[in-house]
Recover the amino acids of this structure.
């Protein structure tokens, strides 16, 4: 079986839930304390042994490329000052082999993933939605990679969501929820609360066998007029198994302001440099 060496990070969306700031700052570049949201997906992939990262990008997202690029001027300033941050600063641009692929029109997540076809080739790969921040040990990436190694089947990260959130996600229909990973029968994109076949939403990451690309090529626009990854999954399910993995970890939806705030507080509380101060500030908050 081929191993997963490539990650595709879909980061070309408009980010309308983050307007007005998304007008000028890509939502993937919004800060979680002192690192941008997308840093966490790249870091998690690299820590799990992924060798190359394909970032699907779009107009106005140069900040993402600058972030992962070398910055010799700033590096030499930090070196001259013997700045304690120098090594960590250097490590960002050396973290991974990053390839940028442009999605010229935002035709949906499925379309975004399809843009990576030429770079990924005929290999399994992992897809991240950078907004979906999942922190845990082992990482969600390690959990999915273990499942893929054991089964050779595509596998997607799923989480229980509140009833009111069901219409925002792809919801899985599973046979019976006893053995993990679950075998998916079908996926319903953005169902009404009454039509949702379970409480399990696909949050990603997703590990796909390369056959997903040919299926994506014939996937017609679906919900919202977009080429939906979930519609492609339903087509792939006609030929191949797709598993659902209810990962362990803390999940934050950083695609909206409240989710981003919660994630930032969580990270600060777990970071020795900030933990004491943020804890005492929170404890003294008068609400
Ligand atoms: P979202 O559903 O969050 O859409 O996309 P969005 O446009 O980014 O944000 P809102 O809803 O307008 O606030 C889920 C993921 O798929 C990517 C996004 O960048 C995000 O990571 N995506 C979506 C693309 O890369 N291309 C697309 O055409 C659509």
């Amino acid at each position: 079986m081929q191993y997963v060496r490539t990650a595709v990070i879909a980061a070309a969306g408009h980010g309308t839930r983050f307007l007005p700031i998304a007008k000028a700052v890509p939502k993937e570049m919004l800060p979680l304390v002192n690192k941008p949201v997308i840093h966490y997906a790249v870091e998690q992939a690299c820590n799990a042994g992924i060798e190359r990262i394909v970032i699907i990008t779009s107009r106005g997202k140069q900040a993402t490329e600058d972030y992962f690029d070398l910055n010799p001027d700033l590096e030499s300033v930090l070196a001259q000052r013997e700045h304690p941050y120098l090594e960590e600063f250097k490590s960002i641009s050396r973290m991974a082999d990053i390839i940028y692929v442009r999605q010229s029109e935002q035709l949906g997540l499925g379309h975004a993933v399809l843009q990576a076809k030429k770079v990924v080739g005929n290999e399994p790969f992992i897809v991240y939605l950078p907004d979906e921040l999942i922190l845990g040990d082992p990482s969600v990436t390690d959990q999915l990679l273990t499942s893929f190694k054991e089964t050779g089947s595509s596998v997607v990260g799923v989480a229980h969501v509140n009833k009111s959130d069901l219409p925002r996600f792809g919801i899985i229909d599973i046979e019976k929820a006893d053995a993990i990973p679950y075998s998916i029968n079908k996926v319903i994109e953005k169902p009404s609360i009454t039509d949702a076949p379970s409480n399990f939403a696909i949050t990603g990451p997703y590990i796909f066998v390369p056959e997903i690309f040919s299926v994506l090529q014939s996937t017609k626009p679906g919900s919202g007029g977009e080429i939906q990854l979930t519609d492609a999954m339903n087509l792939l399910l006609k030929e191949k198994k797709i598993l659902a993995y209810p990962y362990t970890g803390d999940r934050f939806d950083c695609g909206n302001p409240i989710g981003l705030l919660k994630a930032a507080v969580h990270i600060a509380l777990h970071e020795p440099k900030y933990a004491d101060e943020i804890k005492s500030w929170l404890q003294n908050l008068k609400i």
